[in-house]
Design goal:
InterPro entries: Annexin, Annexin_repeat, Annexin_repeat_CS, Annexin_sf. Belongs to the annexin family. One of its GO terms (cellular component) is vesicle membrane. There is one protein chain. The chain is mainly alpha-helical and 321 residues long. It has 21 helices and no strands. It starts with a helix and ends with a helix.
Length: 321
């Protein structure tokens, strides 16, 4: 397979990965574009949803380009005319690149009255340093704004320090026993030192941190979550405490952290997690969701939603567990 094939959406199949959405075999952009144009003219939402939820992100990007060449129009503009509400936001999200999508989620979390600190924490906690670099670049391109400056303006105090440290996180090496000793001693201090936790949790590689936190729980004879809750409970703002706990949950078990995030089935949060993780680790999140709730994500979506929105979400989820 040559590079021209890949640029046209003919990707190697993702067998063996943990994404639920994989490249559509025998993908033909011209055929899809013709079907999409007919569907947009007839307002055939079912066909639009069926095609766009059954293509990988790279294939959708090639459809955007092919549609523009074929019709001299933007595909997004046509979708906005035919779709509405939650279904529109879901499909338009699928049409973005992964880094554009996360950039838009961050911007929305900071717009208007109030800031959604949990969305910001989720994205920054779950993304790798390279992904965060790509998201930062996409944010600048999409909004002509500086992500770090916007985050600083929307947060304050130690929580702000945590958020910026996460944005610039590193996967460095360190000695497990030394980090274990440092965190254990910090928990004994009457005055919490947030900077100690921020420094260690944002500058070490994930496997190292899992080992440190596991050993710390054995030493404490309680979960790190419980320790942080008690240690930082005196703070006037709960944002730092929540942020640190989210980071710990993510380090210990990212799929479970995300599965618990979407249990309430709030559509904006649900769509954000499902779209951003559809080609990465949604299969793991599905398994964690079943463990956490006793119900499969697929069944939960069937019960919660109806019509084309349900069709789209089920297509992304892919299967019953």
């Amino acid at each position: 397979m040559d590079t021209d094939d890949i640029s046209n959406g003919y990707e190697p199949m993702w067998w063996g990965t943990l994404g639920s959405v994989r490249p559509f075999p025998n993908f033909h952009p011209e055929m899809d574009v013709s079907l999409l144009q007919q569907a947009l003219e007839k307002k055939d939402v079912n066909t639009i949803v069926r095609i766009l939820t059954n293509r990988s992100n790279a294939q959708r990007q090639s459809l955007v380009r092919a549609y523009k060449t074929f019709s001299q129009k933007e595909l997004d503009a046509g979708l906005k005319k035919v779709l509405s509400g939650d279904l529109q936001s879901l499909i338009l999200g699928l049409m973005m690149t992964p880094e554009q999508f996360e950039a838009h989620r961050l911007r929305k979390a900071m717009e208007g009255v109030g800031t959604d600190e949990e969305i910001i924490s989720e994205i920054l906690c779950t993304r790798t340093p390279q992904q965060l670099s790509d998201i930062t670049a996409a944010y600048s391109q999409e909004f002509k704004r500086d992500l770090e400056k916007d985050l600083l303006s929307e947060t304050s105090g130690d929580f702000s320090k945590l958020i910026i440290a996460l944005l610039k996180k590193e996967n460095g090496q360190a000695v497990v026993d030394q980090d274990l000793k440092t965190l254990s001693e910090e928990l004994k201090n009457k005055k919490p030192a947030a900077e100690v936790w921020i420094d260690i949790l944002t500058t070490r590689n994930p496997d190292h941190l899992k080992t440190v936190l596991s050993k710390l729980e054995i030493e404490l004879e309680q979960t790190v979550d419980e320790a942080l809750e008690g240690h930082f409970k005196g703070l006037l703002s709960g944002d730092l405490r929540k942020g640190l706990k989210s980071l710990v949950h993510c380090i210990q078990n990212k799929p479970m952290y995300l599965a618990q995030r979407i249990q309430n089935m709030k559509v904006q949060l649900l769509q954000g997690v499902m779209v951003s993780h559809s080609e990465e680790d949604l299969l793991s999140i599905r398994v964690a969701y079943l463990q956490a709730t006793g119900t499969s994500l697929y069944t939960a979506l069937q019960k919660q939603f109806k019509g084309e929105l349900q069709q789209a979400l089920l297509a992304i989820c892919r299967a019953e567990d």
